[in-house]
Protein 1
Amino acid sequence: MNAPPLLTIVLAAGKGTRMNSALPKVLHRVAGLSILGHVLGVAEAVGSDEIAVVLGPGMDAVRTEALERATRARIFVQHEQRGTADAVLAARERLIHHRGDVLVLYADVPLLKAESIGRLRSALDAGSNVAVLGFRADDPSGYGRLLIDADGALQAIHEHEDAGDTARAVTFCNSGVVAFRCPNLISILDRIGNDNAKREFYLTDAVAIARSAGLTATAVECAQEEVLGINSRDQLAAAERIFQDRARQAAMRAGVTLIAPETVWFSHDTEIGRDVTIEPNVFFGPGVAVEDNVVIHANCHFTGARIRNGAEVGPFARFRPGAVIGRNAHIGNFVEVKNATLEEGAKANHLSYIGDGRVGSKANIGAGTILCNYDGFRKHNTDIGAGAFIGSNTSLVAPVKIGDGAYIGSGSVITKDVPADALALERTEQQVRPGWAAKFRALMARAKTPRPT
Ligand code: UD1
Ligand code: CA
């Protein structure tokens, strides 16, 4: 059976004042991606045919992020925050034209799994008109309670503020995630009133209204942590912890050895191959891909980099956007690579800056080599040929080209191109004065001896 088209409505009109931040709440990041980005990622992953994002007035930064993360998304503005049902109806124009399922997500719930949405949709396939994702709360206060009838169907949702003692004793709570397969959803939503403690239009009232219209509703359970909503900085940190635990487990299942998993930090998009070993204290920023058989020693920081098969990097390596570490290349301690490619088997083992350039295959970069890529105004390129040898403490002043197999003497400041297989040396000639040091010491010792008065 083909699933009906899916319209996903993401509610993001809330202000999120408890973050105490100039940044809108849903733009705070978990694993390097905005909270909203995570939610839109789920909306995409479950195969939404259309995505509507409901914002409050003036939330331009959120609008920009929404359109960046989900190019097909349409934005709707809820002018006044009058409750979750009113927020869904802000997308009325979309709802009117939609024939199919409707999924409602909250923009501040970043850890939701696509698989749980899959179970909600299965409930619709099995005949329910409304399927609500619920969880067992350690402390249910504040949440809507899911009231299950004798047949195991969802009867109604009672909001905490309005719930009587019996409902308050229920610990099965509404996550806010709900899927509808209702022939006339708009008429159900239009029947929701605001005669309640908060004077809000509660989306949760849709359940009782649907039931009274002869439709059916079900609750599907998921883990509480999956539907954690972010309202404060400590919830943000809690979400990060949960995300990281999941990512570490997933990496280990996929064949990655983590010596101290709790010290390795992944980004939302980190890709890691098989038989990779990662030592303690490694941080992956966004956009990093690590191929198979790589060894990452302790204390590294990577963003926007690709590390190819068999490379060995660190300890204390830093890769910034555009770094490509070739097959079997070696990058050692205190080496920074940015917008540069090291080809197969190249080595830079100690204390170097490799920015804007290419290091040819099997070239060797000596300790303390700097690619001087910036003249204070513009960036320039350095090209180092295959098999070149760059002596320690060399400055390569870009733009400059070092030919294949060329040899650069230590301590040189190279400002002109060097042909293949040539030696380039830039230093003043060494002077040697035999006995000078001993004489100098004797002179200084005499100067220190107090003179008789
Ligand atoms: C809501 C549910 C409650 C559930 C809880 C889970 C209702 C009436 N209650 O309560 O059953 O247990 O979530 O966290 O739905 N929003 C708008 N416009 C509005 C109001 C809210 O866009 O006018 C958005 C918010 O940005 C947020 C989401 O809807 O993303 C939920 O709003 P919130 O005020 O947090 O809902 P609760 O009252 O906590
Ligand atoms: Ca010099």
Note: The chain has a mean pLDDT of 97.
Protein 2
Amino acid sequence: MVLAAGKGTRMRSERPKVLHEVLGKPMIVRLLESLWKIERLQLVIVLGHEHRAVARTVSRAFPRRRPRIVLQREQRGTGHAVATALAELPRGPRRVAVVNGDLPLLSGSTLEGVVEAHGAARAAVTVGTMEMADPTGYGRILRDGEGRVTEVVEQSDCTPRQRRIREVNAGLYCFSRAFLERAVPLLSSANAQGELYLTDLVALAAREGSAVAGVPVPPEELTGINDRAELARVERSLLERVRDGHMRAGVTLRMPETTWIDESVTLERDVVVGPGCMLHGTTVVETGAVVEAGCVIRDGRVGPGARIRPYSVLEEAVVRRDAVVGPFARLRPGSDVGPDARVGNFVELKKTALGAGSKANHLSYLGDGEVGEDVNIGAGTIFCNYDGFSKHRTVIGDGVFVGSDSQMVAPVEIGRGSYVGSGSTITSDVPPDSLALARARQVVKEGRARALRALLEGRARAAKRPPGGRDGGRRS
Ligand code: UD1
Ligand code: CA
């Protein structure tokens, strides 16, 4: 049973707590990914606050799973959540594990360990416990003289002395079903928060003489997330794990504490990632490639030996072997930069393939295009791909030289080996090996600079003279 009905007041958010993301993934999705690794698990999820949004996220993330969802309309405490879900438990299982929904780092094997210990101890209640340097916010574990767990006391119900106890309830339990069904109706809300506490079942079991087991669980998996500061801390520890994994596998991370790497990202051997990079989604960086400082890559592929220079942004883009991109380049979805090609500063590509060895080094927009091999795209070239209604393609053959500041008014095709003069506005196809010039012919008037200067100077002086004079009016 996963308890995820609460609003998460301490997050101070419009969004339900379990939908807040930890390293790019909602908490609840992380938890369910771990739980569904357990065999023969039948899952019941208790939802309440914003239940539609949570259910939608769950079914999108796990389209083939059909967990039972129970609605807890009013959130009257963790005990009340379990009470609401009891009626919906599938027939059969004799043990019920309960997990708080705000534990995104919990592993399936830790929960299995708690369930096993529960079986071994023939307990009515088994609770995962951990030692915290700072136990603030957690329920404290009370033990008797023989070290048996007797009670869990919530933070707000603790005496000053109990507050100093550092062993806490991790938020992960296993119950014998018979005990749960018998004891849940006995819960009372006579406590500081006026809620039904699931944790009171521990004292109920101990008092009736049933076995209670406390099982140590790893705190690094069970830090509960109640506010955004805790969320950031959990995220940081997860990131640290991801980065360490990559470094141990042969990746160099420069100033690793500044890089963000989703777990879904693949980095091959001898990849170097500079400070402040963010690598997201299905991004793959192949062997020996270098991603320099401040790059953001989402669902991109960087080929072997390629170099992404600082502050470039790639989204669903491919950069092939030994190509160089950036600094300050933007590769939008559908960009494909060929082997040994170059994309320089302030160049934007969208749905454009740049062939092997081709260059677009400065200040260009290449959208909906196909550029052959060994093409030179001069500075300031624009593919005019959009007419306000539809997008059109620009096709440039192998070996073409496009002079600076040219516009390709798509749809248009430049045949292989052609030469486009600088400043051209190309509106019709150019056959192979041609020279295309589409700009006004230059006019030179020798000596006219001096005369022009004299004229302009005279005008400027006239404009400064006080009005009313013979010459004071404006001249054309
Ligand atoms: C809870 C435990 C505390 C433990 C801590 C571990 C109780 C009373 N306290 O405290 O002993 O140390 O977890 O992290 O259980 N929920 C519902 N319905 C409700 C109330 C809560 O589904 O009516 C869900 C929440 O969405 C959340 C989970 O239960 O996912 C835990 O609730 P939360 O308010 O975070 O409990 P804590 O105060 O952290
Ligand atoms: Ca919590």
Note: The chain is about 20% helix and 25% strand.
Protein 3
Amino acid sequence: MSETFHLAVVGATGAVGQEILRILEKRHFPVKTMRCFASSRSQGRLVTFQGQSIPVEILAPNSFKGVDIAIFSAGRKVALEYAPLAQKEGTIVVDNSSAFRKDPHIPLIIPEINAHAIKKHEGIIASPNCTTAIMLMALHPLHRHFGIKRIVAATYQAASGAGAQAMHELTLETKALLEDKSFDRSVMPHPYAFNLFLHNSPLLENGYLEEELKMLYETRKILEDETIRLTATCVRVPILRAHSIALNVEFHAPACKEQAYALLRQAQGITILENRKENYFPMPIDATGQDHVLCGRIREDLSQPNTLELWVVGDQLLKGAALNAVQIAELLIKKHDESSTAQH
Ligand code: A2P
């Protein structure tokens, strides 16, 4: 592969944006030029890429001229406004927000699971919700083998999912509490240090949080199975950047824990981490900074047949967001290389 590409990161000053830059560098993505965009709040800021300081540019309608691939991580509103403008310029957009995930014409991809869906893209590709991505990394090998009938999920979600400011606020609030000082919150809706609360996404008429229904719709789309049933309870816990998920999964075929361990040991991007003698199972500190999603404590549900319980933990900023988006961009390069080879 000799060709290099003009890249842009939209939301380059954010928690995910910063990881995108780091991952592109670490994985030797073939970058010819890099442009970094954020809001007017970041006017005058510099970000680092490949040892160089890059000035942050304020995002504008004409920002995408000459950009081959733009990775967006600046939220739904920015994506809805700017991704179509980028698309018109011929830029391929990989978007981390929820803006396009439910659109049937836009692929929603976890490369280890449904890389083939990239063939159908028309200029915009969506990367899934962080909790869904982490959960499905552990579930798709089991789905292929046993067929998932129903998932019951309880999540323990980190601050990073709400952005860099939420992570910063959690640190400051914890410090203030330890020093017995008062603290004025501006990002999270409730006391967060030494506390937890139901996920801060909109509460819908049916009593579900938007985050919980994202898990349902995105699971069906990525696993390409509209019959899968899912119910979830999503909770924010005072952890900086790794999500944990307790899963109870009922399968169509008889499922045993030995087979499940064997399948997950062979699966890409998953590590089984456990020491039963020490009662050691994956923790957020184990997953922090790790590309792999960690899984352990697979057991057969005593209450009903064909049902397994799993404990899954993954770095929200990596496989939950930035890493997955960069892996999608890598698929684009692979596709580009294959079509160039076919033409010669
Ligand atoms: P900024 O730092 O200038 O606010 P996080 O999820 O960590 O909060 O990061 C969100 C990212 O999206 C940041 O880089 C933020 O830039 C960027 N962003 C937010 N609103 C806009 C906007 N209207 N235009 C461009 N970038 C935006």
Note: The two ends are 14 Å apart (CA to CA).
